[in-house]
Amino acid sequence: MTTLTNTTSAQTARELERLRGDGGSSALGKVLNLVAVVKDDEGVRAVSESAIDVAQAHPLRIIILLPDAPSDDDGGAPRLDAELMHAEKVGLAEVVILRPYNGAGVNKVSLVLPLLLPEAPVFTWWVQEAPKNPSKSGLGKVSSRRITNANATRNPVASLTALAQNRQLGDTDLTWAGITIWRSQLAALLNEAPHEKVTSVEVHGNSNRGGSNLLAGWLALRLGVPVHLEHCDSAGIYSVAMHRESGALSITRPHDGDVAILSRPGRSDLQVAMPMRTLQAQLIEELRTINDDLEFADVIQEGLPLVN
User: Fold this and answer.
1) Distances (CA, A) of 180 to 15, 183, 192
2) What is the spatial distance between Cα 1 and Cα 23, in angstroms, rounded to a whole number?
3) What pLDDT score does 283 carry?
4) How far apart are the first and last CA of the chain?
5) Residues 215-225: pLDDT tens digits?
6) What is the DSSP letter of 31?
7) Average pLDDT over residues 98-119
8) What are phi and psi of 99, to 5 degrees?
9) In DSSP terms, which residues pair with 81 in a beta bridge?
10) What distances in angstroms separate CA 21 from CA 17, 24, 27, 146, 278, one per listed residue?
11) 94 φ, ψ to 5°?
């Protein structure tokens, strides 16, 4: 770790160039910028621990930005400290941690701009709390994609509802990537014969979590049938049952388990791997494209209100 005290973003960028030259690496292979906005060192750890896995899929530069904090050093004058993480800690990623003090972080965009790789898309990720209207924030305006994390907030469902009300092209939430496996498995079940109409759906899961609500909203929107979300004490989604004339198609994943049971009328149950998705896996999926996710937009704006 290289630490710069009382520095500027421009000086930090030059030091990053120097370290890269000493290490024989190049920025040419980096495909995107990720600005990670955190509220504390717990957020810093979450991002830095994800960096190696994420960079293997998307070589990138990560700029971790902490909130402005008071400090008595230097007589309380504005100050920026920066930390540059070395390759042995973060692999193919370049990770810069910015710690502003005494007003140096008021303009977040001015802190970040000198560190962005030119001609590479900018993703901004609010790791913990996010603004209600990400696209209107300073960092949101300079970003190709804006990623929030509803499940890291105090009220995930309220966070998704606020995002639905203010959503603009490029807004997404990690919760959506968290239910990709569930959506894929349920769609595969419905593709099997007999192709009967689903009459109703029950989702059992933690109704305070974003994933249970998004999955229920997706099913309600795409199937056009009543979907009931039943709360249970689970880390996320516990089971889904899709009722048809011949019986229910269901997937049940035991609490904290990695293997789910697929049940179909008249056929033997199947076991399939369905582990809880890691933060790294969710982030890798969201960084895969700069295009807007219209399916996610439909679900949070039209699907969520259908859940009962």
Assistant:
1) 40, 5, 19
2) 14
3) 96
4) 50
5) 999 999 999 99
6) -
7) 95
8) -120, 95
9) 99
10) 6, 5, 10, 31, 33
11) -110, 120
Tell me which residue has tokens 């996710």: 293
Q: How far does Cα 241 stand from its chain's mean position?
A: 27
Phi then psi dihedrals of residue 230, to 5 deg: -100, 125
Strand, helix or coil for residue 35: strand
Helix (H, G, I), strand (E, B) or coil at 297: helix
What letter represents residue 247's amino acid? G
What is the secondary structure of 221-279 as a DSSP string?
HHH-S-EEEEE-S-SSEEEEEEEETTEEEEEE--TT-SEEEEE-TTS--EEEE-PPPPH
Residue 147 · residue 172 · CB < 8 Å: yes
Q: Per-residue pLDDT tens for 163-215?
A: 999 999 999 999 999 999 999 999 999 998 888 999 999 999 999 999 999 99
Tell me, letter by letter, the H, E, C secondary structure of 117-148. CCCCCEEEEECCCCCCCHHHCHHHHCCCEEEE
pTM over 0.70: yes
Q: How far apart are CA 12 and CA 116, in angstroms?
A: 11
8 Å CB contact between 134 and 124: yes
Residue 54's alpha-carbon distances to 86, 149, 161, 168, 226, in angstroms, are 16, 16, 28, 25, 38
Q: 67 Cβ partners below 8 Å, 6+ apart?
A: 39, 100, 105
Q: How far is CA 202 from CA 30, 215, 217, 249, 263, in A?
A: 44, 11, 11, 11, 14
Q: Tokens at residue 151, please?
A: 């499940």
Tokens of 131: 């603004």
Tokens found for residue 205: 């899961």
